Amino acid sequence: MIFRQLFDSVSGTYTYLLASRRGGEALILDPVLEKVDRYIQLVSELDLKLIKAVDTHLHADHITGLGALRDRTHCVTVMGERSKVDVVSMRLAEGDNLTIEGLALDVLYTPGHTDDSYSFLMHDRVFTGDTLLIRGTGRTDFQNGDARAQYDSIFNKLLRLPDETMVFPAHDYKGETVSTIGEEKAFNPRLQVKSVDQYVELMNALNLPNPKMMDVAVPANMRVGLAQEEIARRGWALSAADAIALDSRPDVALVDLRERAEREKHGVIPGSLHAPYPDLVANVRPGGMLNELARATGRRIVFYCAFGERSAMAVRAAQDAGLTSACHIQGGIDAWKKANGPLVR
Ligand SMILES: [Fe+2]
Question: How far is the CA of 130 from the centre of ligand 1 (A)?
Fold first, then answer.
């Protein structure tokens, strides 16, 4: 396995690069905008393909690298379903898996630092975001923070993991790099409380100043979505209502770019084909499955995904490959559902 812990000394942020093998798919957790060049260089040095960029929560102390990584590598942006960020490619909930080739991380919803804080468990290690830090816990006094919820996330989820589970947080300000659940149980001063009320009292008495970057970072991080308007301006987008009207026409081929688990959980547009986004480039190039389908049958390719991000990127790639009729459903299956489009599971 490839496991890299990268550090941004300005914000004290840890970013993690994970892959199951050299030459394989990679994911990056909590990337920082100013470090994006470095990540891309490392991904190329290790001969990896960046597939997913994930944030554990909406950060207040640095600008996320999610949008820049998506624009430069066409990776999928991922956050939790509770996040108020405008658009990401994929949203996950407690019990879902965050997967790339050879790796699957369990998604834990661990609110408290913010109401959109998630942790990710991978066998012997857990990425705790700002929920559980080394000898500390994330502040709970802004961004819908809630000390009571954090107590529950820590004591009833994270501390129930095996004691030897390694803890990799999103931040450290003292140079610590890793801990374990057992160590934090025993030595984290914030966790030596007798009750939830005592924890709430402790957290409410911290009186911390706001992060320096907060006024810049929070608004920037709320808007990482790809500008789908540009795709629409070029005439490559259908509204959900227009797509519903086109549905089941023989000259249209609806193509679902999502992963199998997303299809099972959220439903599928009846009669649509499945062509997962990571295989897109191979599918749209001459000789590829979708390219052949469009050329042989004259059918118009209409891509869709969860929120319209992957499909907007797919439209660009298909147009670049010469499929001039390719378009997508703006807003994805989320918009389709809101427009009461039919679904099968
Ligand atoms: Fe945070």
Answer: 5
pLDDT greater than 80 at residue 221:
yes
Asked whether the predicted pLDDT for residue 248 surpasses 80, the reply is no
Residues in the chain: 345
d(CA 311, CA 296): 22
**Cβ neighbours around 39 below 10 Å, total:** 24
Position 171: which residue type?
Answer: H
Q: For residues 164 and 179, what is the distance between their CA atoms, to the nearest angstrom?
A: 9
Q: Which of 191, 59, 205 is nearest to 133 (CA)?
A: 191
Ligand 1 centroid to residue 85 C-alpha, Å? 14
- What's the predicted TM-score (pTM) here? 0.95
Distance CA 150, CA 117 (A): 10
Q: Kindly list the protein residues that place their beta carbon closer than 5 angstroms to ligand 1, a single-atom ion.
A: 130
Q: Which two tokens stand for residue 185?
A: 């149980």
CA–CA distance, 329 with 26 (Å, rounded to integer): 28
Phi, psi of 16 (to 5 degrees): -120, 135
